[in-house]
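Lecture 7, part 2: worked example. A protein chain together with guanosine-5'-diphosphate.
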Amino acid sequence: MLDALTDKFNNVFRTLSGRGRISEENIREAMREVRTALLEADVSFKIVKDFTEAVVQKAIGREVIKLLRPGELMVQIVYEELVNLMGPVDTRIYYVQPPPTVIMMAGLQGAGKTTTCGKLAKYLVAKGHHPLLCAADLQRPAAVEQLRTLGAQLGIPVYTDDSKVAPHGEVAKGAAVSVCRAAIAQAKQTGRDVVILDTAGRLHIDDALMGELREVNTQLKPHQVFLVLDAMSGQDAVNSAKAFNEQLEVDGLILTKFDSDTRGGALLSAKMITGKPVKFIGTGEKLDALEEFRPEGMAQRILGMGDILQLVTEAQQKFSQEEAQKLQEKMEQGNFTLDDFMAQMGQVQKLGSMDRIMKMIPGMSQLTKQMNMGDGDVERQMGRMKAIYNSMNKRERKNPDLLDGTRRRRIARGAGVELNEVGQFMKQFEQTRDMMKAVGGMGMAGKMNLMKG
Ligand code: GDP
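Predicted complex, written out as structure tokens:
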């Protein structure tokens, strides 16, 4: 995700940090490179120009050139401007009384609208809601079927009306509105508090499509309208967003396919061009691959600074309360053993592919690159760590200080790894243990600061 952009930014900052002092010309030169990087990422020209100019002005205003280590402040300024470009964003969904809250989803065919309906429904269930999905893309039986399948997978009811589906002809006027209205009525009867409308999508924007969406919008007055856009399609996505937004009162954008090789243009241009913020991003085909969008986290990721808060949020969702509690106690008591270390690794693996996690940890995306670790290498490394752990006996695991040279050699043989890998493994464990001790000793307030920092 946005790797090319991150690489370019890192190069620019490396050059700037390499200098003791910098001149205004150095800053302008660096911004020329940033400008190229952003244009290559398919950000619109005007935005790029305004962005780089804002950075230069801020840098001059804050007297970056007088500093001994100007690079750090430059990173900070670019970070702030990236956050300004994408935010502010309020990802909260406002629920109405009496229920149901009606959410309308719009977007071009293939953008990922139907999948995102499923993801959003799952997201709402996790927050304690009871959504109902409504299949209102009546021209495409496949879309109706797809939503039914998603609903079945998630155990969430789907309202459909096959008698109104018209694959080969015009969808009857008012049919989409009547299907949506019936879904809302059903939600009321069955106690579902949110209705998600999967409306029509076409390959291109046309009058018929817009007419149908406008009709749903004006007659049913959905409480929120989300526009689903394919981040891979860059400026095209933003342009179609503009067109949709002129016809519907869009509340927020959802950009999909962030796991693919997107260049970032859509994300960085969307807010400025449409005036509407990106509220969620889709990061995979699976139904849990939906993230609330936080400009701060995204700016950190773009600048290769990681996104710890996102990790913490996901960890809170996926680790069981009990496991988290246990770890907390261990931290406070300072008796962190190899068993805990491996258990923690297992926990971390629940967050998804290690490669993805590494990118969210500050500095790690650079490190894995420097070490030439590609996709899958981190997973393999985890496999080797497990093999080492499995080759130890119980006493050794409880008391790693026992591990002298002879024992380490035996373990390496057992695990089928080099002797120095056992050493590395132990070092990693010791570092984690030290960190745990430090964090454990800090008390709650200190830990909160660590997360914020
Ligand atoms: P619709 O025509 O807009 O309803 O699009 P679909 O929901 O059918 O999605 C089109 C394709 O995009 C499907 O193959 C989805 O699996 C895929 N897709 C949707 N969201 C994401 C995402 O966040 N990441 C990836 N990689 N694929 C996605």
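Residues 107, 109-115, 143, 146, 201, 256-257, 259-260, 282-285, 289 surround guanosine-5'-diphosphate (CB under 6 Å). Confidence is low (pLDDT under 50) at residues 443-453. Keep this in mind for problem set question 3.
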